[in-house]
Amino acid sequence: MTTFLDERIHDQIAHAYANSPATRARLDAAGVAADAIRGVAELAQIPVLPKDALVGLQQAAPPFGGLLAVPLAEIRHIFLSPGPLYEPDAGHDPSILAMAQEALRRSGFAAGDVVLNTLSYHLVPAGALLDEALTGLGCTVVPGGVGNTELQVKLLADLPITGYVGTPSFLLTLLQKGGEMGAAVKLAKALCTAEPLFPHIRQQIVERGIAVGNAYATAELGFLALNTDGGREMRLLPEPVVQVVDPENGGEVAPGTPGEVVVTNFNRAYPLIRIGTGDMAILLDPQPGSSRQEGRAIILIGRSGEAKKVRGMFVHPNQLRFAVGQLLPGVTVQGAVSHDGEGKDFFVVRVAADDKGSGEAIAQAVRQVSRLRVDRVEFVGAGGLEPSVPGMVDERKWG
After folding, report:
1. What is the pLDDT, as a whole number, of residue 322?
2. Rounded Cα gap, residues 90 and 265, in angstroms
3. How far is the CA of 318 from the CAs of 208, 218, 371, in angstroms?
4. Are residues 193 and 266 located together in one domain of the fold?
5. Which of 121, 261, 289, 391 could form a disulfide with 127 if both were Cys (CB 3.0 to 4.6 A apart)?
6. d(CA 356, CA 339)
7. What are the residues facing 302 on neighbouring strands?
C-alpha cells in the first residue's frame, strides 16, 4: 500500500532528478530510473553517497557540487560547515524547522520560555535554525552564541532565562562557572546537541534540577532523533527518512544489527538522497516491517570514518594536514580527542617532528581551519608517527 511518505519520496526523487545535475548523473550511473523509486522500499536501489564525498563534488563543481535544484537567487543564506561544505539554507524544507520544534517541544520548551541559545550563529546553520524554531514556538531568545563564559553566566543571572540550547559540555561549564562566581542560575530545561551527552555529564546537569533533551542532528539534515530519559536509545523523529544500512551493500539491516545511518531529506532546494552520515548505529524496531519511523529508535555507537567530533564540531584529518603542512610541509599529523579531569573534550594534535618552538603557531593554524581550540600540541619526533596512522582518533571512554 502506498503511503503519504512514499508519495513524498517519489515526488522528491523526481524533482531532484529533473533539477539537480549531480543527482541525475548519480542515478544514471547506477542505472536507476527516477520513476522506479515509488517509495521508501525502493530507496535501496540508489547507492549510498558518503557525506565525505560531498566535499569532492563541491570541489569539482563549486559551490554546491551540482546538487542545488533551484536558482541561486532563491537561497536566503549560504552556510559553511566543517568539511568544508557549503550548504544553502533550509527555507525550501519546512520539515527541518518542524523537526527542530518537535525536539524542543518533547524537551519541555513552550511559549513563554526565555531561552539562551549558545549554538553558533556564525557560518554554520545551528544557531539560526534554533533561533527560528524557538521564536516560532513563542519563546524569547537570548542569542548568546559560542564562548564568552563569564558574560553568559551574567545573562543567566540577570535575565529570567528558563531554557538552554547548545552543547552539553558548555552547559556544564556555565553551571560550574556560575557556582564559582556565586551567580544564581535557575534553568529548568535544556536541549543538548552537537556532541555526545556522556552519562557523567548528564548526571551533573540533572542534579541541578534541569530536564535534559539529547538530540542527534547534522548540519545538512537537521534533527533526526531525540532522547529525554537519559538512556542510550534515541527515538527517531518523523522526518526526514532515516535508514540504518549495511555499509557494504546499502541494504537496511535487521533490528539489533549495527549499520550506518543514511538519510534522505525533503529539501527542494538541496535534495540530499541516501546520504551516508558516517555515524554507526544499532536500529531498534519493535514491529519490523510495519512500524512508522517515529516508532523506531537508534543507539549511536561511533563513527565509520576518520572524522571525529570535538566539542560538537567534526574535525577531518585533511584539515589537520593542511593546517600543519603550512608550517611543517610533509610531516605526519594526528588529532586525538579524550576527556580531561572534568569529563570535557580535550583536543591534542600530535606532530611527527621535533619541537622547535612552533607549537603555538600550529595550534593557531589548526584553529583557523577547524574553528576549535587545541588544548595541547605534542611533538613526537620524526619517527613518532607512522604515515599510515589514522588522522583522527577518539580516546574518550564511551561506557
Report:
1. 82
2. 11
3. 40, 20, 14
4. no
5. 121
6. 27
7. 280
CATH number of the domain enclosing 179: 3.40.50.12780
Please state, in angstroms and rounded to a whole number, the distance separating the CA atoms of residues 93 and 38: 20
Query: Which range marks the domain in which residue 184 is found?
Result: 94-227
Query: Mind giving me the DSSP string for 332-376?
Result: -EEEEEEE-TTS-EEEEEEESS--SS-HHHHHHHHHHHH----SE
Answer whether residue 399 is part of any domain. no
Distant-in-sequence, close-in-space partners of 259: CB < 8 Å, separation ≥ 6:
244, 245, 246, 247, 252, 253, 280, 281, 282, 283
Q: Which residues contact 161 (CB under 8 A, 6 or more apart)?
A: 114, 115, 116, 142, 155, 186, 187
Residue identified by cell 543564506 is: 77
Residues 53 and 130 placed together within one structural domain of the fold: no
Alpha-carbon distance of 381 to 385, in angstroms, equals 8
Tens digits of per-residue pLDDT, 174-217?
Answer: 999 999 999 988 999 999 999 889 888 999 999 999 999 999 99
- 300 vs 212, more confident: 212
Helices vs strands, H then E, count in the chain: 10, 20
Do 105 and 138 fall into the same domain?
yes
How many other CB atoms are there within 10 angstroms of residue 357's CB atom? 6
Secondary structure (H, E, C), 229-264: CCCCCEEECCCCEEEEECCCCCCECCCCCEEEEEEE
CA dihedral 172, 174, 179, 180 (to 10 degrees): 110
CA distance 196 to 215: 9
Compute how many other C-beta atoms are within 10 angstroms of the C-beta atom of residue 14.
13
Q: Are 236 and 298 in contact (CB under 8 A)?
A: yes
Q: Kindly tell me if the per-residue pLDDT of 40 is higher than 80.
A: yes
Q: Where are the beta strands (DSSP E) in 51-192?
A: 78-81, 85-88, 114-117, 140-142, 163-166, 189-192
Same domain, 125 and 83: no
Three-class SS state of 39: coil
Please check whether residues 244 and 211 belong to one and the same domain.
no
